[in-house]
Amino acid sequence: MPITSFHPPHRTLMGPGPSDVHPRILEALGRPTIGHLDPLFVGMMDECKALLKYAFQTENALTLPVSAPGSAGMEACFVNLLERGDKAIVCVNGVFGTRMIENVVRCGAEAIRVDTDWGKPVDVAAVEAALKANPDAKVLAFVHAETSTGAVSDAEKLCQLAQQYDCLSIVDTVTSLGGVPLYVDKWGVDAVYSGTQKCLSCTPGISPVSFSDKAIAVIKSRKQPVQSWFLDMNLILGYWGEGGKRAYHHTAPINALYGLHESLVMLQEEGLEHAWARHRTMHNALAAGLNALGIEFVVDAEYRLPQLNSVWIPEGVDDAKVRAQLLEEFSLEIGAGLGDFAGKVWRIGLMGFSARAENVRLLISALAKAMQDQGYQCDVEAALAAAEALL
Ligand SMILES: *Cc1c(COP(=O)(O)O)cnc(C)c1O
Asked: Half-sphere exposure of residue 9, counting CA atoms within 13 Å on the CB side?
């Protein structure tokens, strides 16, 4: 039997990413492929950079999309800024912080780990103590929006501390970009990476990054070459850099970049502040509905990410069964708990195009049905009314 074309179903994506991709972005992906050194394509690359500067709120010249997923953006920041023998302070309050440690170690650098309980923002006082105890640290790295727990950390304060103690800051904004306030220049972030498949609602596979002038100076004056050829910013600059001739480095993911361009145009049309406010509104409505169903949040309201809602699975409700039923009966995806939260927590995403009223309504009614089928007692109508009052 010959294998035939793959036609995926339409799903509603309310997990930790990817999020629902807007039809405008899907349409952009199917536009004609042109050469990656075609002058028209190069013009579009420049527009992507300008739009990314807006999204990141930065004037950094070195702001561009790395041709690989968020994890590659993470690696790009670490391999370019760290050399063998360097020291980096890494904040861990969830899964993605532990990945930063892996990156530091693989650079041949030493990781000083500052742990905070899962579900809490990074402990600023503990970070300051680590900075004091390690005056030779070169980098302070942390995750702005921990997707494994749904907690947001005080990036402004942490970057301020990095500056005060003469460290470069590396900030993971994969889930925060486009979803909650992020000001790269105002906060003095030195290296930042993000992803396209979370609050930008684009397809996965691209990682926007941005480096401050201070970070560029460090990259340019390295003693050892960056151990990753593909992610060496010194080389990538020849392809994505300002003005001058574009030299071939690798073939850009041309159509994927059309998608990113379209998603950033949409962000510009909506306005960053409005996008942040929309995520907040949808979260408030979802939270009211879930609370009315008797479901509790993992993270205190003060530190809660509107785009990633971690909730405790009620007693007696089967995690895997509920998620399977949501997928089969409602074509609705939510996320499972990661690491310490596996089996205990659901992660409900309201990212980008997924952060809209019809998704909030669907999630509440579908989740209530799946739990009721297991004997859980709740009032769907009351929960929908509680959400509707805030929409
Ligand atoms: C999703 C995510 C990543 C990894 O991005 P990929 O595109 O899956 O490689 C990194 N950090 C955080 C906080 C994330 O949520």
From this structure: 10
Look at ligand 1, atom 12, and give the residue with the nearest C-alpha.
174
Q: What is the whole-number distance in angstroms between the Cα of residue 174 and the centre of ligand 1? A: 6
Determine the pLDDT at residue 247: 81
Domain 272-388 class, CATH top level: alpha beta
C-beta 325 within 6 A of ligand 1: no
**Ligand 1 centre and the CA of 282: distance in Å?**
22
DSSP H or E stretch at residue 336: strand 332-336
Distance (Å) from CA 193 to ligand 1 centroid: 10
Q: Where does 16-89 have alpha helices with state H?
A: 23-29, 39-56, 70-81
pLDDT in tens, 297-323: 999 999 999 999 999 999 999 999 999
* pTM for the full predicted model: 0.97
Which residues of the chain does CATH 3.40.640.10 include? 23-268
Mean pLDDT within 360-366: 98
